[in-house]
Structures are given as C-alpha cells and as structure tokens.
Amino acid sequence: MGEPTVDHAGLPSATDGEVSSARFWNAAQGGKDNYERDRQAVEAVEKMAPGITADARSARQFLRRTVRWAAAEAGVTQYLDLGAGLPLAPDIHHIVSRHQPDARVLYVDSDPVVLAHQSAYQDPPLSGYIDTDMRDTDTVLAHAAERFDLTQPVMLTFSSVLGHFSDDEAHAFIGRLLEPLAPGSCLMLSHDIPTPTIITACEVYSAAPGALPYQPRTIEQLQAFFEGMDLVEPGLVPLFEWRPDEATEVTEVMGYGAVGRIPA
Questions:
Q1: Residue 105, CB half-sphere, CA atoms under 13 Å: how many?
Q2: What is the distance between the terminal CA atoms of the chain, rounded to a whole angstrom?
Q3: 67 belongs to a structural domain
Q4: Enclosing domain of residue 126
C-alpha cells in the first residue's frame, strides 16, 4: 500500500495561529474549550481520516470506564492522571468520588492552555493539579508522595498521550513512576495503532502549526508497557471492547487499551 495522499488545504495556516494539542483533542471529543482554528484542524483530519473524532470520543469513554472499574470494583482510592489535557466533565475526580468518598486525584500536565483551565481540576482535598512535564518524574513523585499514601495502590492513567513520546522516553518515565508504587497499583493506557486511517490522521494533524506530532504503536509495542504486570480482563483490546456500557460507542478499530496491575 502506498503512502496516503494528504490534502492540507483545510488546515489552519501559520497566520491563523498555532493549533494546541490540548484544544485539538478537546474539540475532537466534543468539548467547548477550543478555538476555531482547532476545530478547523479537527475537521481537516476527519475529512481525510473519517472516524477519527469517534476514536477520540472512544478514548475518553475508555478512560471513564477504567477509572470507574478501579474505584467501584478494585477499591483504588488514588489516581495520577498523566497528560490530563483540558477538563471535560465528568473527569476522573467526579467519577471516583461517587464510589470512593475519600479518593484523591492528582492531574499532571505541562501545557499552558491546560494550566489556564486548572481551576476545574482543583477540588481540595479530592483533587489537585500540578504544572509539570510527566517526564520530570522526581517532581511528579514528590507531589504524589505529599498527596497519596504510597503504601496503598495508585492508578496511573495515560489517555492517548504516549504517542507524543519515543519508546525510550515512555518506558523510562513509566518505569520510574511505577517503581515506588504498592502491589495492586494499576497502569491504564489507551493508544492508537497504525491503521491506514490513523496514519493519515497523524500526518494531517502533524502538519498543523504548533501541533505536537503523534506516532501510533503496534499491539506488540503496547504489550511491552505491561511487562511484569497482570492484565485486567479482557486484556489489551480495542477500546470499545473493554467492559463496554450503555455509553460505549462501537467504532472502527483504531485505538487499543488495557489496565495492568502490579502483582502482590
């Protein structure tokens, strides 16, 4: 199969201002905290890669189902959301507090656009926000140690963000973040795989001024992140197949996700 032919005519130009990665995904998921240039970028990607907005919504639905499972069924009370992006209610703290009134949630992001909206994440003592790069694991873990009891399980969530990092980077900071966590702690990740639609979408999106390039990963590459962990049923599967509920959309298979647990 040859390389897809991409028409960039629908993308905002540099004179329109930069596209924000956070605002792009907010627009793709149906949020309101975005600009016209972000919506134009979403429309351009959807035109060339139909179904990409449904894939974005599916990732958000997966995040909500996994944290609900962790709170309601696994009894996890502590959540560290890496690369939180813009708030889009119900967010993690809204969901887990319904099942664990004493839950604690810490959102992490370094995007100035997200920082400007951090008040939606600040609901002390339930939730808080730190403005730092997830690769700065010393800072992230220092804040986690202040907010959490690290002798008890913590859930790490990476919702469609790891494609912005190389394999070496991602494995390094995930390993460092998992290292001090107690048995029963969870790693949740969702990630697009290299289907023709996703490859086209990544090319179109990456051409927009200011966009942060995203690289899909194979299923085998995603499995490597869970080495040494116990996968929660049904394992690493298309997003809509992970414990679907009435709100789950069935989409073209573009994204995969899983939850792994540190064994006792």
A1: 24
A2: 46
A3: yes
A4: 16-261
Contact 114, 88 (CB under 8 A): no
The model's pTM:
0.90
E strands present in 62-177: 78-82, 104-109, 127-131, 155-159
Q: Is residue 231 assigned to a domain?
A: yes
**What is the enclosing helix (H) or strand (E) of 238?**
strand 237-238
11 within domain boundaries = no
Q: How buried is 16 (Cβ within 10 angstroms: 0-12 exposed, 13-18 middle, 19+ buried)?
A: middle
How does 29-49 read in b/e, with b if 16+ C-beta sit within 10 Å? bebebbbebbbbbbebbbebb
Task: Indicate if the pLDDT at residue 139 is higher than 80.
Answer: yes
How far are the Cα atoms of 37, 39, 103, 117, 220 from residue 147, in angstroms, in the given order? Answer: 37, 36, 11, 21, 34
User: At which residue do the structure tokens 């897809």 appear?
Assistant: 4
> Is residue 209 over pLDDT 50?
yes
Residue 4 within any structural domain of the chain: no
Round to whole Å and give the CA distance between 87 and 223: 28
Please write the tens of the pLDDT for every residue from 73-108: 999 999 999 999 999 999 999 999 999 999 999 999
What's the total number of domains in the chain?
Answer: 1
State the CATH number of the domain containing residue 116.
3.40.50.150
Q: Report pLDDT for 17.
A: 56
Task: For residues 179 and 241, give the distance between their C-alpha atoms in angstroms, rounded to a whole number.
Answer: 29
| DSSP 8-state secondary structure symbol assigned to residue 75 | -
With beta carbons less than 8 A apart as the criterion, state whether 225 and 189 touch. yes
Nearest to residue 88, comparing CAs of 32, 130, 39? Answer: 32
